[in-house]
Design a protein that fits this description.
Elements (H helix, E strand, L loop, with lengths): L7 E3 L10 E5 L7 E7 L9 H4 L1 H9 L3 E6 L9 H15 L1 H4 L1 E11 L1 H8 L24 E5 L11 H8 L4 H7 L12 E6 L8 H12 L4 E6 L18 H13 L1 H4 L5 H6 L7
Parallel strand pairs: 3-4, 3-5, 5-6, 6-7, 7-8
Antiparallel strand pairs: 1-2, 2-4
Length: about 280
Amino acid sequence: MGIMNHCKVSLWPDRCGVPSSITSFLLPGVEVRPAILVIPGGGYGGVCERTEGSPIARRFNELGFHAFVLDYRVAPHRFPAPQQDAMRAIRWIRGNAEKLGVDPDRIAVCGFSAGGHLAASLGTICAGVDASCGDELDSISARPDALILCYPVISLEPWSHEGSGINLFGELTPANRKAGSLEKQVTSDTPPAFLWHTIGDQLVPFRNSMEFAQAMAAHSRPCELHLFPFGKHGMLLGTDTPDISSWPQLAANFLQTQFSAAALQARYTNEYQSSLLPPVSL
């Protein structure tokens, strides 16, 4: 399986007949780096690669990450096809980590809108999904080390974005709503999560991000949530805004903290911070 920068590589063996692919955005040099798997949105009816794919990957390149963009199955394919593609993508990156220059223990997933639902699935419901195909990647963990969820669809309850749920399941029965509402699927093993949303999102209510953050807190899982006051759905990189444009750097800071959590814990106390304050001159 060849690895070429900015070229699509099939995720599945030809015998599987699955067209899903991954595109690499690798930084030059031999330094081993953390990686981001970017999952564009599209309501599980399309994949918005042009807006929520390669531009996001290149921004994370600027921040020092190798990046990859996932092209996954959407309607008329149903659950768990997109989840299987995302799992296979994580396994592909981790299984090729040495050749790619990726740290296999620092792989995050970054999803937008319905792609955020798919990204969050990797930390919740995918534990029960079979994405095997009979090759060496089957034995590799498909769990990402962190989640970055950008104006994500989280819940499939009526107050959220029903179109994504219909495209994913075909029919939103009570059982499907429950199974696909990820705020109800958080566990003590869900990876650390960074979320951002705009309060003005007219398509996917910001309540989605709040519900997931509250579930993470209830299970004592690391979580960071940013709510921005302005902006419609699909703010992407927030270019030319003084606030939303900061989210990639905030996400990178979050990942640095999570990947170094043990070494940094002592700094997160009042005593430590107070000791760094300059003396007060009277």
